[in-house]
Design brief:
about 90 residues, Immunoglobulin-like, single chain, mainly beta, three-stranded antiparallel beta sheet
Length: about 90
């Protein structure tokens, strides 16, 4: 999901996210379509995780993020050409 991407960006509820600190698992779900790509960054803009799927992932994606430190993060997920951005915290 680079800046040259043709995808539209919006902050919306096209995705839902749930981070479980006990098992370092982030679950991302999309009620409308499969997930094309995911990018996680900290609030300073440093990229923590990024993955583009050549074949879209399922509507529910589980990511193991054992190195995620306590803090606030931004998740951008592309679904059907639209990038939805949501904030979440790791505690």
């Amino acid at each position: 999901m680079d800046e040259a991407s043709c995808a539209k960006t919006r902050s919306s509820n096209n995705i839902s996210i749930n981070y479980n600190a006990e098992n370092s698992m982030l679950m991302i779900s999309s009620p409308i379509a499969k997930i094309n790509s995911v990018r996680i960054s900290d609030v300073a803009g440093n990229e923590i995780f990024s993955e583009h799927f050549s074949t879209p992932a399922e509507k529910i994606l589980k990511l193991k993020l054992p190195l995620l430190k306590q803090g606030i993060y931004l998740l951008a997920a592309e679904v059907n050409g639209i990038i939805s951005v949501q904030k979440f915290s790791a505690r």
